Each structure stands twice: as structure tokens, then as C-alpha cells.
Amino acid sequence: MLNRYAGALALCLAGTGTVLAAEGAQESVADAMAQVFGAENVKSVTATPVPGLNEVVLDGEVIYVSDDGRYLIQGNLVDIQERRNLTEERRGEMRAEAISALDEKDMVVFAPAGDVKHTLTVFTDPDCPYCRKLHSEVPQLNAAGVKVRYLAFPRQGIPSPGYDKAVSVWCAEDRAAAMTAAKSGAEVESRTCDNPVMDQLQTGMRLGVRGTPTIITETGRTFPGYVPAAELLNQLD
């Protein structure tokens, strides 16, 4: 992927004769990237704490480009002195923005009876063993004031039995009951309807989800895989 970015940018600069200068570098870098990837895919270009290096946010990815457009870096930018992964912080912001833009009515929600202290959004597959283990601990999370919201992420893709089961859950009259039944191994009535399963799978892929469960906090912090409820609560507090 790095070669694809670098090659495309080099072709753009060579073809247009664009010369990027330190002064107004962000605007010049943004123009060059827009010519390669389309303006709609270049979300932002900002200076980093590293002189001469710019952060470029493409659709779902963070890369770095030098002021003169010669160098492109794909990877983590870490502030060693402050012990901060600046790239992961930016990705977290992007995940939080993407999740906050989703409509909760399209999710399967397990909410606490009282006040909500934290919200976890979980990409899940009803057949995933560790998703089932996490689901068995949702009552413990709810009791501690944590709302759990499920998004569909059928691991086998589309079409697949897992996709069909997710659709049946999302099309059930009582989604929460259907989700609990599916994760307990019970049969779920086969149903179809207009549903968000495909869109949620695609959202997960854009956010870098590779397996289930993937747990995302309100701040965009990600826990890839099963985490015991007690540990999650410690991390949230």
C-alpha cells in the first residue's frame, strides 16, 4: 500500500510539475493529494510536531508527507519524550467520529437500568465464540453503568451463513432477545428486511476491524478481541 501511495504521488508531481514549498506546505500537499486520490478522499492535511512533515488523513488512513512532497511515511509517529503514539491518537479520533455518526437505532443495544457512565460499541458476529463469552458478561457491564451497542461484522463476509444469521437478528422484532438467543446457540427465526448489516461490515473494514469482537470506547480507543468485563471496567475507570 505504501508503494501505491508513493507511486501515485510521484506521478502526480511529475505530471503537473508541482513544487511544494515549506511556506503554505499544507495547502500544496492537499492539492497534490487531491489530484491523486480525489478531493473527497483527502479529509485533512495538518502540520505535525516534526518540522517539514505533514499529517494527511485519507479516507480511513493516516499517512505523512514531507513539505516538498518527496517523502511519504506510513506508520506510527511516536513522541518518545511524552510517550504518546500520535498516529494512534489520531486514529482514535477518527474512530470516535465515525462511531458517533452512526444511528443507534440501527444497533442492537443493551443499556443499563440506571445512568449510563460509559458506552462500548462492539463489532460482533453471533457465531464468534469470544463474542459469546463477552455477551455473557454484558449484564455485569450493564450493572456497572456501561451501555453495550452491537454492530454487525459477519467474519465470513457476504454471502455466508454468518451474514444470514446477522440479518435475521437485525430483522427480528426484538433484536436484543434474538442476539442473546443467537449467542447462546439457539436457533433464530430466519428473516429478511431492509437492514444495516452490510453497511456496518463496511464501516468496520474502513475502521480497520479485522476480527470479532472489536470493542471501541467513546474516545475511539480500541480493544481488538475479548476482554473480561472486570478488566474493561478497570480500563474505563
UniProtKB/TrEMBL annotation:
Keyword set, alphabetical order: Disulfide bond, Periplasm, Redox-active center, Signal
**InterPro entries on file:** DiS-bond_Isoase_DsbC/G, DiS-bond_isomerase_DsbC/G_N, DiS-bond_isomerase_DsbC/G_N_sf, Thiol:disulfide_interchange, Thioredoxin-like_fold, Thioredoxin-like_sf
Q: Where is the Disulphide bond isomerase DsbC/G N-terminal domain?
A: 23-88
The Thioredoxin-like fold domain sits at: 114-235
Q: Where in the cell is it found?
A: Periplasm
- Gene3D superfamilies from the UniProt entry: Disulphide bond isomerase, DsbC/G, N-terminal, Glutaredoxin
Provide the Gene Ontology terms for cellular component.
periplasmic space
* Chief localisation class: periplasm
Region forming the signal peptide: 1-21
On whether Signal is a keyword of this UniProt record, the answer is: yes
What is the stated purpose of this protein?
A: Required for disulfide bond formation in some periplasmic proteins. Acts by transferring its disulfide bond to other proteins and is reduced in the process.
Q: Which family does the record assign?
A: Belongs to the thioredoxin family. DsbC subfamily.
Any idea what this protein is called?
Answer: Thiol:disulfide interchange protein
